[in-house]
Write a structure and sequence with these properties.
The structure holds two protein chains of two kinds.
Chain A: H1 5-33, H2 38-49, H3 60-92, H4 100-115, H5 123-152, H6 156-175, E1 203-205, E2 213-214, H7 216-233, H8 235-245, H9 247-252, H10 257-284, H11 289-294, H12 297-307, H13 312-331, H14 344-360, H15 363-369, H16 378-389, H17 400-403
Antiparallel strand pairs in A: 1-2
Helix pairs in contact in A: 1-2, 1-14, 2-13, 3-7, 3-10, 3-12, 3-13, 4-5, 4-6, 4-10, 4-12, 5-6, 5-10, 7-8, 7-10, 7-13, 8-10, 12-13, 13-14
Chain B: H1 3-26, E1 37-40, E2 50-55, H2 65-80, E3 83-88, H3 95-104, E4 109-112, H4 118-127, E5 132-136, E6 150-155, H5 157-175, E7 179-184, H6 189-205, E8 210-215, H7 222-234, E9 237-243, H8 245-257, E10 261-266, E11 276-282, H9 284-296, E12 299-302, E13 305-308, E14 315-317, H10 328-339
Parallel strand pairs in B: 2-3, 2-4, 4-5, 5-6, 6-13, 7-8, 7-9, 9-10, 10-11
Antiparallel strand pairs in B: 1-12, 11-14
Helix pairs in contact in B: 2-9, 3-4, 5-6, 5-10, 7-8
The chains are: A mainly alpha, B alpha/beta.
Amino acid sequence: MKPSRLARTGRSVLIPLITVLSAFVLAGLVMLVTGNHPLSSYGAIFDGTGLNWLFPWVTGQNRTIAAQDLQQTLVAAAPLVLTGLSVAFAFRVGLFNIGAQGQYTVASVIAVWIGTIWGGMNPVLHIVLAIVLAALIGAVWSALAGWLKANTGAHEVISTIMLNWVAIWVASYLFQEGGPLQGKQALGNPVSNTIAGNLHLPVIWGNPELQGLDVGVFLALIAAALYWAIIRRSTLGYEVRAVGHNPAAATASGMSVARSYIVTMAICGAFAGLAAGIDVFGWEFQVSSTTISTSEVGFLGIAVALLGRNTAIGTVAAALLFGALETGTAAINLNPSAINPELAPQLTLIIEGLVVLLVSTDLIAVRLLGLPRKVGWGRPQAVAAARRDTLAADDPALDPAEALRPEPGL
Amino acid sequence: MSPKEEFVKVFARLSGAAALLAAVAVGVLSTASSSARTTHSKSIKPSSFTLGVVADTGGLNDHGFNHLAYMGELEAHAKLGVKYQVLVSTSSADYVPYLTKEAENGDKLVVAVGFDFTDALGQVAKEFPKTHFAIIDTPANTIPGKPKNVEGLIFKSQQSGYLVGYLSGLVSKAKHYTTVSTVGGQDIPSVTAYIAGFQAGARAADPKIKLLNAFSNNFADQAPCETLADNQIAQGSKIVFQVAGGCGLGALQAAKQHGVYGIGVDADQGYLGSYILTSALKRVNNAVFQATQDLLHGKFTGGGNLVYDVNNNGTGYGRLNAVAKPYAKQLQKLLAEIKAGKINVPTTMLVK
């Protein structure tokens, strides 16, 4: 018996929620063991995320601070939405894109380079051109891995990881002391030129001088809507899902698996490249060798996509959670007696780590709730697709109509 | 503004100008740039003084730079009675908001740990002209906009490098080692000063010693530094000096694995084991403590630098292991000579 649409949607919301809650409970135990009070610590973290701004009873100075914190949460969440979409889109075709970090890196380089040359250009045109080119280079970089997969069978996990390193080391070389793109004023500091003030993305909330919220967050939301439209409403999305569910069946129905891999990876790269574009023009304004080697936004995208179950809305929600965690656990430090400052950043990592761990073991939640198991998201989908490849051709599971049954959620 | 506040402000300005004139007259202010001014204003009660530190992405457990800044903060809290807070950046997106957070919290002094904060500090200092900022390892005049409320806390780390380099030369000579090496995090002055001192010191003790150097372009990940050190050891290096923060711990790991000696950096890294000959120190903790104490007494070198060297216990060498102990007297003598200004340590590397 097929579960109703409502039940399926309910389940796709419930399981990530249970995952996150379990992660919080386990991290609470860690706090307890290390001598901190979990509830008051979580209270402080929540206030630190700025989400208390949504409560009308928070007023005065607290409201100002909450507004600033919320701006930072959103600034942090915007690129995570995009790198999350980058990973999620690949999952839909059955590929695991670990390369969002590399795609983000090459796009940062292009964005900051374009942003610091051609001084006389119309500012609006200049920003648009730079961000479009950043997305484009991300797409090309990522399509390389797709092309390798399609033509040589090189596994995308290996090739995207390797391309990450190529991107990171080339970028560090470019900005290092004496490197070709090191800023003119930056002697002794391995950093690019700085993007001029008239080329910054407009700040819509907060002080533009103090990293207020820029319009990048809207670009991220538009990208999420686009993601939904491609997956659900386009021929391309139909093909992507078909190949993801069952490459053999897709081939049998006349679709090109190779083309799907290349096009999908290109779109993934464009999302990650866009993330770099909004970061560089939104708040970063320059790129340094140090930030390149310490940035983790692409890797966090994997966790975001997993938790968001590769859906547009899920990815946005998961990115918001991860952004809020980053901001919230920092603010808790303002009072060193509340939690040991040496421990607080680790707490973020513990919660994030637990989320990823629990997402990958979501079967536990499924079992506990007595829910029927359904293969249909994340890595299991690709694995299942691969397994079905090996099955006999007359297996009913290979029925394309069954494989293309719509998935729950967006 | 009340007349009283007006008076205090004018007085502060005048006394600042007077102090500057006096200082220039006796030539004490040798390091401050021409636009720098040491202001002497009313001292501040410790109970109303909060010291803020913003650590970079290395985190407080980096066994180096950030750790030392935090130690200095705790020391200021314990000995001077000031309140404190510390924020640890997880990415460069945190720099501006964290500096802002501490300034808005009303912190009297906000210390940014490292050159990575250069541009973020330029942005924030301008918005909070009444807050005092300090930045480690970065001259104040390199901050964009040259704000007058920022002081640079800089170190003559070439002196520490020279001391440990000299020790390496002595040990090499005695043990007939041909080669010593350095692993730097990046080709930037705060790193190359250490290495320049090390190379000059090693050659001073053993003119024939072969010097190797490599840059990892990384301060966080141990793997690249370990690989570089492996290569140097394969080329005959018997003493590896790391100048790459957290990455450099990988270089020391390589030294341990191959049974050669390592030299720590910034903090005393002798805790790693008996293979650590000694460490080249950059006492960031002393700088943070001193800057806090100065500001408590109303002294602040806005737009200029406070320079830490062997004379004010900013640089030096750490604990000596069993192999290095016999040379303790020679090192003491060398330290005294540097203090007396008899040795001028170069800041340019002999071998890149």
